Each structure stands twice: as C-alpha cells, then as structure tokens.
Amino acid sequence: MHYQGESYMAIRNIGSDPMERLAKLTSESAVVIFSVSSCCMCHAVKRLFCGMGVNPAVYELDQDPRGEEMERALTRLLVNSQAVPVVFIGGKLIGSMDRVMASHINGTLVPLLKEAGALWL
Q1: Which fold has domain 18-116?
Q2: CA dihedral 117, 79, 18, 10 (to 10 degrees)
Q3: Residue 35: strand pairing partners
Q4: Which long-range contacts (CB under 8 A, 24 or more apart) does 21-27 make?
Q5: What is the spatial distance between Cα 107 and Cα 73, in angstroms, rounded to a whole number?
Q6: What is the DSSP string of 68-118?
C-alpha cells in the first residue's frame, strides 16, 4: 500500500474542479482508494487489498487540504452510499465497502484486479 504523500501537491496542481482531480488520480494507479484515516471500514478495505497482494494508491482525505471537496465529489458519484472508502480499479468506480465485499464474495474482484494489472496470479 502506498500512501500518496506527494499526491497532495499533485492534487493542488490539478485543475480546480474536484471531478477533474478524481479522474486524474484514479487513472494513475491500477487500484485507488479514497479513505479517511480514522475510518474502520477504510482500514478494512485497505487490509483486504494488501492481503490479496495488491498495492493500492491510498488518498487520505482527512489529511488533504482539499479533502472535503474531494469527499463531496465522491459522494455525488456514489448515489445512496457512504462517501468513504471509495475504490477505483483500472480507473473504473467500483464503489464503497459493500460493493467491494460483494465483488470479493461473488468472485468478480480478482478478475477485475488482474485485468487492471494489479494482480499477476
């Protein structure tokens, strides 16, 4: 798991539109997780991916000066779901913890990860 310390500078330098920033950040890594450091569900989803051998890019919104507006943009994408954690695989929105776990349980998560180049097994 790599935390995007330099991402705060990157986020600051991307256009002012939060949706544009989300699109840019989610296209830069095979697996991207938007998280809040104190969130237990965020911790669980990060551990799930690490336990599978995936090295996700993690953006901790509570540690980012523009994190609140990023979280609002994520909430707009996730109709009827909590704002964090939010997972993107291969640049595509997977969703929050419930969608990730459903994909894991029904066997569709591993193929998505392989297709995105996040898993080689």
Answers
A1: Glutaredoxin (3.40.30)
A2: -30
A3: 60
A4: 21/66, 21/70, 21/73, 22/70, 22/73, 22/74, 22/77, 25/57, 25/59, 26/88, 26/91, 26/93, 27/91
A5: 29
A6: HHHHHHHHHHSTTS-SSSEEEETTEEEESHHHHHHHHHHT-HHHHHHHHTS
Instruction: Tell me if residue 8 falls in helix, strand or coil.
Output: helix
Buried-exposed string 9-25: b where 16+ CB fall within 10 A, e elsewhere: eebeebeeebeebbeeb
Domain boundaries, given as residue ranges, for the chain: 18-116
Asked if 19 and 83 count as a contact pair (C-beta separation under 8 A), the reply is no
pLDDT (tens digit per residue) in 15-41:
578 889 889 999 999 999 999 999 999
Look up the pTM and report it: 0.86
